[in-house]
Amino acid sequence: MTEPHHPPDDPREWLNRARSNLRLAAQHEPGIYREELCFNAHQAAEKAIKGVFISLRADFPYTHDLRELLDLLGRRLDVPEHVRQAQELTPFASRLRYPGHGKAATEEQYRQALAIADAVIGWAAQVIAKEGQ
Known about the structure:
Layout: H1 11-25, H2 34-55, H3 66-73, H4 81-84, H5 90-93, H6 107-130
Helix pairs in contact: 1-2, 1-6, 2-3, 2-6
């Protein structure tokens, strides 16, 4: 079942998109590179974090650097350490998703990327609910 679409300024839409990316990341099937799956895990975390910015009615830069986003968000609210681990996913949004720019993602990196993205989405959903969205 497809989630209903919300306006782009609604943090629920960003969470829906984050969850969609996480579902794509979980599609560990033959022929799909783990780097692509980790990229979707990164996208899930990024969209969830940006959903928090929207719920706070705060601007955010259009960047894929999760450290930058989390540092900026940390000026507005407490960001738990397990959420800050998302910064480890940034290389999957830049150099590692292209051939020849790093080593192939390991199964352990893939599993960790899924766990991190899932934790970020869970945290973001709580923050957004608390903000009344």
